[in-house]
Amino acid sequence: MYLLFSCIILFLGVPSVGSQNTGSFWHVTDFHFDPSYTSSRNSCHTEAKQRPLGQYGDYLCDSPYALINSSMYAMRDIEDNPDFIIWTGDDTPHTSNDNLDESKVLSMILNLTHLLMEVFPNTPVYAALGNHDYHPKHLMPPHSNPIYNAVADSWKAWFRNDVAEQTFRNGGFYTLPMARNGSRVVVLNTVYYYTNDKLTANDSDPAGQLAWLDEVLTNATLAKEKVHIVAHVPPGHFERHRTKYWFYPQFNKKFQDLIVKFSSVIAGMYFAHEHTDNFRLFYNQQDNPVAAMFIAPAVTPWQTTLPNMIGSAANNPGIRLFKYNRDTSLPTDIWQHYLNLTQTNMTNTANWQLEYKASEMYGIRDLSPQSLNQLVLKFKRQNSEEFRKYYQYNTASIQPGETCGELCKKVHICSITKIDYDDFEKCVIGAVSAATTVCDWMLTFVLLGINAVIALIAAN
Ligand SMILES: *[C@@H]1O[C@H](CO)[C@@H](O)[C@H](O)[C@H]1NC(C)=O
Ligand SMILES: *[C@@H]1O[C@H](CO)[C@@H](O)[C@H](O)[C@H]1NC(C)=O
Ligand SMILES: *[C@@H]1O[C@H](CO)[C@@H](O)[C@H](O)[C@H]1NC(C)=O
Ligand SMILES: *[C@@H]1O[C@H](CO)[C@@H](O)[C@H](O)[C@H]1NC(C)=O
Ligand SMILES: *[C@@H]1O[C@H](CO)[C@@H](O)[C@H](O)[C@H]1NC(C)=O
Ligand SMILES: *[C@@H]1O[C@H](CO)[C@@H](O)[C@H](O)[C@H]1NC(C)=O
Ligand SMILES: *[C@@H]1O[C@H](CO)[C@@H](O)[C@H](O)[C@H]1NC(C)=O
Ligand SMILES: [Zn+2]
Fold it and tell me: Is 138 part of any known ligand binding site?
């Protein structure tokens, strides 16, 4: 009798384990299409380079069309029927404004839009603008303009909603209910909060986006919806630098407060801009992790020109597949794919490979803030294998053996866990005083010293 019962329980129980309703979606970003790239003349960004450039790209350059085309077809080969695609912008190359104009910028945005529509004709795409999707770059005005309007015309088939189209025309942001009942996407224009957007520095709420977001999330709470938040520039601190914050401080605070306030309706946040593979955790007043933001690596391999980077400043091209629970909308896994550009350049064939599955490589059940917080606790251990993998994946495995010393590690962990700028600084300084080896102290001195020296020179 007992055995029979056990068998029935087993029989009923087993299928339910595998029956979680799992769907997938792509997150792809930062293509930075450079139409001037030519491997035959070894030039990109309109400049000649000192070394032979590969057909699919080079770490000193933005993306040739061959790389972009290859990345989109690789997405289709790997998963041709995702529930939706998130595309977080930055379509144009890193070059002087003098080499660009409004019509060139638009033609690149439209080129990538059409390619994505060609490769995934029946998939909903939730697209956001990046700071390079405007001319002059970064300087997005907090109101309607010809670029938002032209982009809205070409994204009409993705909006299929007049209200969304209208808010996009006015401010470059929108919200849409998703095909599955009870879920919603909110696409923001966080370029307004970026310190390079000089037009919004003195504005308390550019284009009224924060008030609008508060209202959308209030409505979602009442309707018991789960919300995916999508944008380009992330809040918080850049983990491969000692002192780089993206948002103006006042917007960083307001944004963090809003996310914590509405964390119970937020399924996930999908951001970009850093070109690295990373995540951020938001904590409430009681210091419990309540929301997670995923930052996807770029398609462009371009090495940033930002001074004083800690470690490698370029990355391998990446494309990111999420797994999620269709019933709860919560993301459950990342299947990160990448292109080993060194190898590609040697063989002249683009062989996109699985880099890692987060669940397997990190040993986590899902991507909930609680699971990720547990992972960060593992990162903190000495010689943490999880942190070593995280650090390799951070650049899409550009230099598998690259090491990250004590201070480097603290900067990464504090960037993940402290969105607030004062909290971040306290986290690093507090952590640094606990540094034990002479080597750590020297590294600390060098990194902190650079800023002190710059300040001294500036003062004199
Ligand atoms: C784009 O990629 C597809 C699939 O690999 C290939 O058939 C096509 O020729 C490529 N187009 C260009 C312009 O590279
Ligand atoms: C995008 O531009 C490339 C190169 O400039 C061109 O070969 C390609 O046909 C264009 N693709 C689309 C879909 O417009
Ligand atoms: C959403 O739910 C409503 C009411 O239950 C139903 O009429 C509609 O068909 C559902 N839509 C989808 C896409 O499932
Ligand atoms: C913002 O305020 C600063 C300081 O008052 C001023 O220099 C700057 O021109 C203002 N910017 C705009 C866009 O109004
Ligand atoms: C919030 O819901 C109200 C009532 O349905 C609606 O009128 C309003 O437009 C919604 N707000 C936003 C920002 O979507
Ligand atoms: C990428 O390819 C190069 C050349 O074959 C190789 O040395 C390197 O280890 C590869 N990187 C990874 C992460 O496999
Ligand atoms: C690209 O490949 C060529 C040979 O095909 C090689 O000479 C060159 O150094 C490579 N460049 C990079 C960045 O790997
Ligand atoms: Zn970018």
Answer: no
Cα 186 to the center of its chain, rounded Å: 15
**Most informative mutation of 84, 181, 183 for ligand 3 (most atoms within 8 A of CB):** 181
The CATH architecture one would assign to domain 2-459 is 4-Layer Sandwich (3.60)
- Report the pLDDT value the prediction gives residue 395, as an integer from 0 to 100: 98
Q: How far is the CA of 455 from the centre of ligand 5 (A)?
A: 49
Rounded to the nearest 5 degrees, what angle is found at the Cα of 311, between the Cα atoms of 334 and 368?
A: 25
CB–CB of 42/49 below 8 Å? Answer: yes
The helix or strand, by DSSP H or E, that contains position 42, with its residue range, turns out to be none
Low-confidence ranges of the chain (pLDDT < 50): 1-17, 435, 437, 452-460
From CA 235, how far away is CA 295, in angstroms rounded? 11
Longest alpha-carbon distance in the chain:
89
CA separation for the pair 55, 44 (Å, rounded): 12
Q: Could you tell me if 80 and 20 are in contact, meaning their C-beta atoms sit under 8 angstroms apart?
A: no
Q: Name the closest-CA residue to atom 3, ligand 5.
A: 219
342, with CB counted inside 10 A (0-12, 13-18, 19+), is middle
Mean pLDDT for the chain overall: 92
d(CA 159, CA 334): 26
pLDDT on residue 8: 42
The residue count of the chain comes to 460
Task: Provide the token pair at 452.
Answer: 């002190």
- Chain CA centroid to CA 354, Å: 18
Closest ligand 3 atom to Cα of 179? 13
Q: Check the CA dihedral 124-129-134-137 and report its sign.
A: negative
Question: For residue 409, what are the CA distances in angstroms to 104, 371, 433?
Answer: 41, 20, 14
| Exposed / middle / buried, residue 163 (Cβ in 10 Å: 0-12, 13-18, 19+) | exposed
CA-to-CA distance for 170 and 207, rounded, in angstroms? Answer: 8
Task: Please state the domain extents for the chain.
Answer: 2-459
Residue type at 291? A
Name all residues whose Cβ lies below 6 A of ligand 2: 35, 65, 111, 114-115, 118
